[in-house]
Amino acid sequence: xxxxxxxxxxxxxxxxxxxxxxxxxxxxxxxxxxxxxxxxxxxxxxxxxxxxxxxxxxxxxxxxxxxxxxxxxxxxxxxxxxxxxxxxxxxxxxxxxxxxxxxxxxxxxxxxxxxxxxxxxxxxxxxxxxxxxxxxxxxxxxxxxxxxxxxxxxxxxxxxxxxxxxxxxxxxxxxxxxxxxxxxxxxxxxxxxxxxxxxxxxxxxxxxxxxxxxxxxxxxxxxxxxxxxxxxxxxxxxxxxxxxxx
Length: 246
Fold this sequence. Notes:
It is elongated, with a radius of gyration of 21 Å. It contains eight helices and 17 strands. By secondary structure, it is of the alpha/beta class. The termini are far apart. The chain has two domains: about 1-135, Rossmann fold; about 155-245, CATH 2.40.50.1020. The mean pLDDT is about 90.
């Protein structure tokens, strides 16, 4: 694989280059740049397999560079000094990122994932940009990785999520099911500010799609698509109170 590194901090650039050489001697670093302008110039000449792109550059942002070169085919790993809302943004967009100072183990994991990565739709970058630009606004879309593709989904179109071991099945209002290799707990945390509620260890529902709560047979939720979702015994009173407030 070939790689290009773009960062406006010389020391950070040097450390990243050194760590890549140590961990992945088979990756050829074919260029470095320290700005949007120099990065765009370099990427017009070279198309690397991997692009390590700092978000905040002296003359703009990594997003500015991607707008200059919308047809770039490199697999992108963003580098950022931000935490909090930036991490949330990356998770909704399902895009790899590295926090400064870069941990070598995180770098190794990111590169290994990039090697297996499917071509990413442009919408993933759009989700990332929008979420980072307005950290107080809830994202309306999420990127979901499957083994075959990367799907961009409207969050309101998700009826529910169901645990399948360490994986999660998304059920959409179109009837489509999407199998994602992440735990339900991860998505419950990601959606905690949205209209989602965990009724059971194995079930996370979008409250916008609840049709009714049925008290018989131990109590369950009937969703608008006809699915019946169990409610854990300890959650029953909480579910009733939640429905009263909808």
